[in-house]
TrEMBL record:
The keyword Transcription regulation does not apply. Gene3D superfamilies: Vacuolar protein sorting-associated protein 35, helical subcomplex Vps35-C. One of its GO terms (biological process) is protein transport. It is found in: Cytoplasm; Endosome membrane; Golgi apparatus, trans-Golgi network membrane; Prevacuolar compartment membrane. SUPFAM superfamilies: ARM repeat. InterPro entries: ARM-type_fold, Vps35, Vps35_C. Keywords: Cytoplasm, Endosome, Golgi apparatus, Membrane, Protein transport, Transport. It comes from Forsythia ovata. GO terms for cellular component: endosome membrane; Golgi apparatus. This is Vacuolar protein sorting-associated protein 35. It is a peripheral membrane protein. Plays a role in vesicular protein sorting. It holds the Pfam family Vps35.
């Protein structure tokens, strides 16, 4: 309630002030229209007396000031025209000083002073000096600030600058600099003093009010930057030291932060670069509460943009040793501000690193130095928990990746993994994902085992459980995504030299073995395929080169592969292990290593017997075994017979009759390999097909017993298609008569009352008959073969 009353009171006082100005402005306009100087001075003084109030907040006072300002511009036009008031400007300058109150007197004096300078009847510097000194008469912070702001505004176009009409006869741009600096110093003192204008409980309100007035003080620095005569030398020797003296001596955190920011924003970048030492020297002298990290970050951002704007300026950075100076300054600031939170220090290092990557991208030692300083700051601290800090550390670690688009460059930075060690487990994973995404996006190849070692150390958060975390706590989807990323990464580790590639594979194997059983199903397959890729490259060697020890041979790699796949038994993941054994067997076949291929098949069969219990998994596994075995050409008769016998035996032992039937007829392909030197045993092909037919019959009867009707004829049609395949391939045991008999059997089954009609199997049979008809009509040798078959 009190607050709303205060606001209402202020509105009332403002309204009264505006009414007073309007009332006196009316009489002032009448006096100006009748060219009555005395009346004009009287009513202008009364009008300006309204600005003597101390009841208004800066925001409301500004409204009042702008009303008065508009009237003063009108009065200035009147003062300029001597014909209207008949008084010389010198007399006028004396005359206005007789006003009763100091505030109206000084506003009028500044207005006449502006006319006085324009008349050139006195040197500009004398009038300006007089005005800036006289304004000391008002020491109330708000009134004084607005008065000096008015002085700065009306004198802005009348400063004796180079090529200005007010330069000459003893007036130089240095007088303009001196005037602005003096006005700035006085305004800053008034602004700082504002904080003592009320009780401590209203400190927050006072700080808000001071913030509203800060631009009045900052405008002086903007004016300084616009003075033509202020070159680098004047800035370095006069302007900057004087401004910094004010900044440091005022000992006010709000003023120091704002003015340091102003200096950085309004003066040219090249000036900052050449006066870096002076500017940075002031930083440790500022109050501890000043947000120096933002100030320095903005300075580095401006210098980075300056460096990016033109390659020609880069030698200047080296010449002034910008990096060293900034690095030392940041070190001193962090040292001086003992209470600076860790997030502040890391933010500074992020800015310094960004600056370094922009200005000295080729200097990796500088980049590593920044990371080293960060490690030093973080050492002795527990794992980072604060999200703001971890966000900054991730920004710090991401910057080199974004700049170089190449993780290999980051891998040469010795302090990079040390910074990562300070991240908590969750953020460590986030950063590891960022690194992997960078590699994938830029298609970066990591080509030595040493670099792979460093890389896997960086992403260890994804590869193994870090202390205090467990895979059980993870979200299943997140875990899968992380492990799939690691799997993709493995395909980016490559070297043309087989020996080095084998070292890389061994390094990766060492790391993934430490990751526990839950990760192995994701990480083992890509490693196995990397090793198989290496085996294919080595196929030209036979594995035992006489006279010298060859480190990377297919045999050695297969031994390693056996160990790698065996590791899956702890998961356990038998289906995956079986698939990988079969892949290795196929590769050993291509390398002509019969014992190795046989051993891999043996392992696959052992897994099938002992580990694969699920009936669906057994069906898939047996078809994979049959398919792989069919493509093998390395085995002698004895080994092939053993493996083929095993495969057909397991096929017939599957749980469901339809699965048995399909597996057995698939085994027929093991006895007829359509290669030049392939096995062609028609007897055993026919044996398999007949056996599958018996099983299909049994399946049909079982369905009849249990459901009272036979199942669809799909299995018979599938077997018919196998008969047609071997018939076309020229197997003498598969005759047209056998095919005719099978077609008749299917037709009989389909017409039987007990058979369930099935559109899919009917269409399948119709399609098969259509194919036979097509072959009959085609003529030629194949047409003759098919001719005896009657449809």
């Amino acid at each position: 309630m009190m607050i709303s009353n205060g606001i209402e009171d202020e509105e009332k006082w403002l309204a009264e002030g505006i009414a007073g100005i309007q009332h006196n402005a009316f009489y002032l306009h009448r006096a100006l229209d009748s060219n009555n100087l005395r009346e004009a001075l009287k009513y202008s003084a009364l009008l300006l007396s309204e600005l003597r109030t101390s009841r208004l907040s800066p925001h409301k006072y500004y409204e009042l000031y702008m009303r008065a300002f508009d009237e003063l511009r009108r009065l200035e036009m009147f003062f300029k025209d001597e014909n209207r008031h008949g008084c010389s400007v010198v007399d006028l300058y004396e005359l206005v000083q007789h006003a009763g109150n100091i505030l109206p007197r000084l506003y009028l004096l500044c207005t006449v002073g502006s006319v006085y300078i324009k008349s050139k009847e006195a040197p500009a510097k004398d009038v300006l000096k007089d005005l800036v000194e006289m304004c000391r008469g008002v020491q109330h912070p708000i009134r004084g600030l607005f008065l000096r702001s008015y002085l700065a505004q009306i004198s802005r176009d009348e400063l004796p600058d180079i090529a200005s009409e007010y330069e000459g006869e003893g007036d130089t741009f240095m007088d303009a600099v001196e005037f602005v600096l003096q006005n700035f110093a006085e305004m800053n003192k008034l602004w700082v003093r504002m904080q003592h204008q009320g009780p401590l409980r209203e400190r927050e309100k006072l700080d808000k009010e001071r913030n509203e007035l800060r631009d009045l003080v900052g405008k002086n620095l903007h004016v300084l930057s616009q003075i033509e005569g202020v070159d680098l030398e004047i800035y370095r020797d006069t302007v900057l030291p004087r401004v910094l003296e004010q900044v440091v001596n005022c000992k006010d955190e709000l003023a120091q932060y704002y003015l340091m920011d102003c200096i950085i924003q309004v003066f040219p970048d090249e000036y900052h670069l050449q006066t870096l030492e002076t500017l940075l020297g002031a930083c440790p002298q500022l109050q501890s509460a000043v947000d120096i990290k933002t100030v320095l970050s903005r300075l580095m951002e401006r210098l980075s943009n300056y460096a990016a704007s033109s390659p020609e300026v880069l030698p200047e950075f080296l010449q002034v040793e910008a990096f060293t100076k900034l690095s030392n300054a940041i070190g001193k600031v962090i040292e001086a501000q003992v209470d600076m939170p860790i997030v502040g220090a890391i933010t500074l290092y992020v800015s310094l690193l960004t600056f370094t990557l922009h200005v000295h991208p080729d200097r990796l030692d500088y980049v590593d130095q920044v990371l080293g300083a960060c490690v030093k700051k973080l050492s002795g601290k527990a794992k980072l928990e604060d999200s703001r800090v971890t966000k900054q550390v991730v920004a710090l670690l991401s910057a080199p990746l974004d700049k170089y688009n190449d993780i290999v460059t980051a891998l040469t930075l010795s302090n990079y993994p040390r910074v990562m060690d300070h991240l908590d487990a969750a953020t460590n994973k986030v950063m590891a994902m960022v690194i992997i995404q960078s590699i994938m996006k830029n298609n970066t190849c990591v080509s030595t085992s040493d670099k792979v070692e460093v890389l896997f150390e960086l992403i260890k958060g994804l590869i193994k459980d870090i202390e205090g975390t467990s895979t059980d706590e993870l979200d299943e989807e997140d875990f899968k995504e992380e492990q799939n990323s690691v799997a993709r990464l493995m395909h980016m580790l490559y070297n043309d030299d087989p020996e080095e590639m084998l070292k890389i594979i061994n390094t990766v194997w060492k790391h993934i073995m430490a990751g526990g059983p839950k990760r192995l199903p994701f990480t083992v397959p890509p490693l196995v395929f990397s090793a198989l890729k290496l085996v294919r490259r080595l196929q030209v060697q036979d594995g035992d080169v006489a006279g010298e020890e060859v480190p990377a041979t297919p045999k050695k790699i297969f031994q390693l592969l056996n160990q790698i796949i065996e590791a899956l038994s702890v998961v356990p993941s038998p289906e995956l292990a079986l698939r990988l054994y079969l892949q290795c067997a196929e590769a050993a076949n291509d390398c002509d290593l019969e014992p190795v291929a046989y051993e891999f098949f043996t392992q696959a069969f052992v897994l099938y017997e002992e580990e694969v219990a699920d009936s669906k998994a057994q069906v898939t596994a047996i078809h994979l075994i049959i398919g792989t075995l069919q493509r093998m050409n390395v085995f002698g008769i004895e080994n092939r017979d053993t493996l083929t016998h095993k495969a057909t035996g397991y096929s017939a032992k599957l749980l469901k009759k339809p699965d048995q039937c399909r597996a057995v007829y698939a085994c027929s392909h093991l006895f007829w390999v359509d290669d030049q030197d392939g096995t062609k045993d028609g007897e055993r092909v026919l044996l398999c097909l007949k056996r599958s037919l018996r099983i299909a019959n049994a399946a049909q009867q079982m369905v009849n017993v249990t459901r009272g009707s036979s199942g669809p004829v799909t299995l018979f049609v599938e077997i018919l298609n196998k008969y047609l395949y071997f018939f076309e391939k020229g197997s003498p045991q598969i005759t047209g008569a056998a095919i005719q008999g099978l077609i008749d059997l299917i037709k009989t089954e389909m017409q039987s009352d007990s058979t369930t009609s099935n559109p899919a199997s009917d269409a399948f049979f119709a399609s098969t008959l259509r194919y036979i008809r097509f072959q009959k009509q085609k003529g030629g040798a194949m047409g003759e073969k098919y001719d005896p078959i009657k449809l």
